[in-house]
Amino acid sequence: MLLCIDTGNTNTVFSIWNGSEIIATWRTSTEHQRTADQYYVWLSTLMNFQKIEADISEVIISSTVPRVVFNLRVLANRYFDCRPLVVGKPECLLPHMPRVDEGTTVGPDRLVNSAGAFDKYGGDLIVVDFGTATTFDVVAQDGAYVGGVISPGVNASLESLHHAAAALPHVDVTMPQKVIGTNTVACMQSGVFWGYIGLVRETCNRIKDEYGRPMRVIATGGLAPLFNQGHKLFDHFDEFLTIHGLVVIHNYNKDMGN
Where does 2-86 sit in CATH, by number? Predict the structure, then answer.
């Protein structure tokens, strides 16, 4: 079986793929101090608790935090007796090479999302990922990542606002009952919710105008359903798009004999 590890700036997701479907997914906070032994104790405890018997023999990693990759490599070597594929490294082949400015390094999360989206939905896509940053990835007709947009993430924006203005409290991100808030929390929630509705809609519209071809919008990330409430921002929401992309890249490397 395949262990897919998606490490973002805030959270790390572990998923087990049995060859036909995802049989388990767990999430933990991203901490570069965590050792391979700690990862294994955490993972094996959850597997035992859910009575999941998985003979993991292959591992693929996507990480936007370079400092955690070493211990994840050790995890794969020590406990699963394999050399992991690491997206973005030269030995990890991609189904479609990105077409960006020479010398530009494309984040592994964006490569993985592009691969997963193209495999499931075809080309001419905008992939919106609500993570620590809110990213917009443009996937061409042939499946190549050809650029995109990076905006501050929802929670990062709220945290920054709280720190910059001491009188403003922490608030949860939710859809407000009305636009005009009558207290501080409601005002902040309205600003974040409607501000990001506008950000996503306007960014996607401008990408479509510049791209010059009909495009579909695919959303992923935990907050995507919230911003799609009553507003047709996305054509599809795919909770496991990144994990699917890791499976696609892993299978491509196997097919190429890598």
Answer: 3.30.420.40
